[in-house]
UniProtKB/TrEMBL annotation:
InterPro entries: Gliding_Motility_GTPase, Gpn, P-loop_NTPase. The keyword Zinc does not apply. Keywords: GTP-binding, Hydrolase, Nucleotide-binding. This is ATP/GTP-binding protein.
Length: 192
């Protein structure tokens, strides 16, 4: 099962994939340079020294038949052309939100909403970030009530796996709701 881990620049995507992956993750981290300073402003993430330039990849086995393949997306706008390829075949996504730069998660939310890909928003609780409740984040990002908002610490395996479990539950609920709507239409004689 292919799952995307998306969000803004510096939101913790590489850290999240690294924390939950059972294999040594593939990472395309490169050092930030003075040349990228204008394109990748470090406001709020001044300590950041590397960035993903293509993708992160990790794997998490649920059981002998179910494996999650995790694809972390690059956060900078100039690399978003990769998102279309990365989302092909994805079942769902975790959108990491950094409360220090909450607006940076808007493009990821919009991307998945426009493509009908189920997602949850995971508020990555950085040590120096402000703590907002899920409803405050929902309102700030403009999420509907059907999109779960969870808290996580991308550095912790247990928190990351809990976030992935929340995504899987959400996707199952969406699937069940879609099946119920389809069978209701079929029972009424309308095409589903």
């Amino acid at each position: 099962m292919k799952i995307l881990v998306a969000g803004g620049f510096g939101a913790g995507k590489t850290t999240f994939v690294s924390a939950v992956s059972e294999i040594e993750p593939l990472s395309t981290e490169e050092l930030l340079s003075d040349l990228s300073a204008a394109a990748d402003p470090l406001n709020g993430v001044e300590a950041k020294s590397t960035t993903t330039v293509a993708l992160d990849f990790g794997r998490l086995t649920l059981d002998e038949r179910h494996v999650l393949y995790l694809f972390g997306t690059p956060g900078q706008h100039r690399f978003w052309f990769l998102w279309e390829e990365l989302c092909a075949g994805a079942l769902g996504a975790v959108v990491l939100a950094d409360t220090r730069r909450l607006a940076d998660c808007f493009p990821a939310v919009d991307f998945f909403e426009r493509r009908g890909i189920g997602f949850i928003v995971a508020v990555n609780e950085f040590d120096d970030g402000h703590r907002y409740g899920p409803e405050e984040v929902r309102e700030a990002v403009g999420l509907g009530p059907e999109v779960p908002v969870v808290r996580c610490d991308a550095r912790l395996t247990s928190s990351g796996t809990g976030t992935l479990a929340a995504l899987v539950r959400h996707l199952l609920c969406m699937s069940t709701a879609g099946s119920s709507a389809g069978s209701s239409s079929s029972e009424s004689g309308e095409p589903s």
